[in-house]
Specification:
about 190 residues; alpha+beta; Thiol Ester Dehydrase, Chain A; four-stranded antiparallel β-sheet; two-stranded antiparallel sheet; 5 helices; 6 strands; about 15% strand
């Protein structure tokens, strides 16, 4: 790379800026502690409660809330890319971790909560910025990354999810098992 090429990388037309706003999480957490997990997730989905700051930062939304099932959506954007132009793996990890926690929360009673104790991802191929791009002559909707999660069983002390991440609106199931959470990203 020449010095001129390197300088072009820092030219003003290559500069990007993104502003993220969010609600303070402490007051929301206080309200959520008085709700069942299902009511809290429905409140976030329906706009009665603000989403967590992390959701605002990454840009994903909660599209479907059912008992033990959450569908998260993300439209990939370039500020989520790594240095080689692929979607950063931490984006998928954050999306999946949040979806799992939310799905488990839909089964929790007032005053109960959950945290991730273990998270394992297996990437079968790179996550490109063109996720969800439709093939053929179909035009229209922006590219979206869909996350589908379904919990099956949970224990009193812990739960586990085996999860799938898809490029399109295909269905995937996440089986909730005892003790710890594990997930696998698949196409």
């Amino acid at each position: 790379m020449t010095q001129a090429d390197q300088l072009d990388l820092f030219s003003p037309d290559q500069r990007r800026e993104r502003v993220v706003d969010w609600q303070a999480p402490a007051p929301v957490a206080k309200v959520v502690r008085g709700l069942s997990g299902m009511d809290a997730m429905l409140g976030i989905r329906d706009g009665r409660l603000p989403p967590p700051p992390f959701a605002k930062l990454i840009g994903f939304t909660m599209a479907v809330v059912e008992p033990g099932r959450i569908v998260m959506e993300l439209e990939p954007h370039e500020d989520l890319e790594n240095t080689i132009g692929l979607l950063h793996g931490a984006t998928a990890a954050g999306l999946l971790d949040t979806a799992m926690g939310c799905a488990i929360s839909t089964r929790l009673e007032v005053g109960q909560g959950s945290v991730t104790l273990d998270l394992k991802l297996t990437f079968l191929r790179p996550l490109g910025p063109d996720l969800g791009r439709r093939q053929g002559d179909q035009a229209g909707a922006p590219d979206e990354l869909y996350r589908r999660l379904r919990s099956r069983r949970e224990g009193r002390a812990g739960g586990a999810c085996n999860c799938n991440l898809f490029y399109d609106r295909q269905q995937s199931n996440c089986e909730l098992m005892r003790r710890s959470r594990h997930l696998r990203v698949m196409r």
